[in-house]
TrEMBL record:
One of its GO terms (molecular function) is flavin adenine dinucleotide binding. InterPro entries: Acyl-CoA_DH_CS (IPR006089), Acyl-CoA_Oxase/DH_mid-dom (IPR006091), Acyl-CoA_Oxase/DH_mid-dom_sf (IPR046373), AcylCo_DH-like_C (IPR036250), AcylCo_DH/oxidase_C (IPR009075), AcylCoA_DH/ox_N_sf (IPR037069), AcylCoA_DH/oxidase_NM_dom_sf (IPR009100). Residues 238-384 form the Acyl-CoA dehydrogenase/oxidase C-terminal domain. Residues 121-216 form the Acyl-CoA oxidase/dehydrogenase middle domain. SUPFAM superfamilies: Acyl-CoA dehydrogenase C-terminal domain-like, Acyl-CoA dehydrogenase NM domain-like. Gene3D superfamilies: Acyl-CoA dehydrogenase/oxidase, N-terminal domain, Butyryl-CoA Dehydrogenase, subunit A, domain 2, Butyryl-CoA Dehydrogenase, subunit A, domain 3. It comes from the Bacteria. Keywords: FAD, Flavoprotein, Oxidoreductase. Belongs to the acyl-CoA dehydrogenase family. Its cofactor is FAD. This is Acyl-CoA dehydrogenase. It comes from Gordonia jinhuaensis.
Amino acid sequence: MTINLELSEKLAATVERTHLAAEHVLRPIARKYDLAEHEYPTELDDLAKLANDAEKAGATAEPAADKRSEASLVAVLAALEVSWGDLGLLLSMPGRGLGNAAIAAVATPEQLEKFAGVWAAMAITEPGAGSDSAAISTTATRDGDDYVINGEKIFVTAGSRADHVVVWATLDKSAGRAAIKSFVVPRDTAGLTVDRLEEKLGIKASDTAVLRFENVRVPAENLLGSPDIDVEKSFAGAMATFDNTRPVVAGMAVGVARAALEELRDVLADAGVEVDYDKPLASQHYAVSEYVRLEADVEAAYLLALRAAWMADNHIPNSKEASMAKAKAGRAVTDATTKAVELVGTLGFSEVMLLEKWARDAKILDIFEGTQQIQQLIIARRLLGKSSAELK
């Protein structure tokens, strides 16, 4: 099956609309909420409503005969454009939580209908688990028609704001990875508390919470997917979530990187340094050669993200490609934003420009949804045909 990475008219229109919202709504308030950590951006409520109305209108207008999904591509492109406006505000957008991607990845058709319209944070990381999602110790114990969840989760994006939380927990610690399942938990459920909100380096517009689960009771049907512990499939069901979210995070990284490179190019132009693609880089200013190198890296990350999303939309296994996109984009955005600050100099280091903010925001994109090292490990396993037990 061939892949065409040129955007269709429909996707191009989505990009244009989203970019306008990012430019006129998010970018102007980016510094405001960077300086007001933990203050809820009320401007997002109207924007989220407009986005939801547009999605409903698009779904209604979609011809019944057209069964080809572009949901993953739309998610990546939208994340890119909104992150160009502001990454922290994207992560605070009502109805656009990382938990929503988990629901989309593994929920049954009945669950997709039940949880349509919720805003779901995703609670995976634990104090003792780090990047190893398989080391989860939060438990979910069956009790009649319910599961009872106990444990602690850290670094939960929008954990204090979302109305639901997708929690990863184990049904049976002795069964290892295969027993890890995800549950949709309303945030107002008895026993679910917000212990604290983190003070962070970047993405300050987005709250990051520590959540505690003490005998939290949820209906059995809130377990996403199958409740069966299938040792053959092992961790595959839970990890399918990341195959959906990692290309989106790569899209976020490309958006932040593009913002920084656009600012850098404007500064260079004001200083009389123009980028000329027709001349050898060796004969141009050092800053131009660095700009072109960074631009090429970001473009490569963009194409990798599109490929991983396209594969997801076409039901082609994309675990390796999703990790490749995430790894490349995580490196590209940290390199692009840091180098932009360096080349601009003292202005880039000050709050006069947003460059220093983008450099702070960028680092999380190389960490969450799996660190750089975890992505490289996954890619190596897929290329070499090794299991997690064989290659650690």
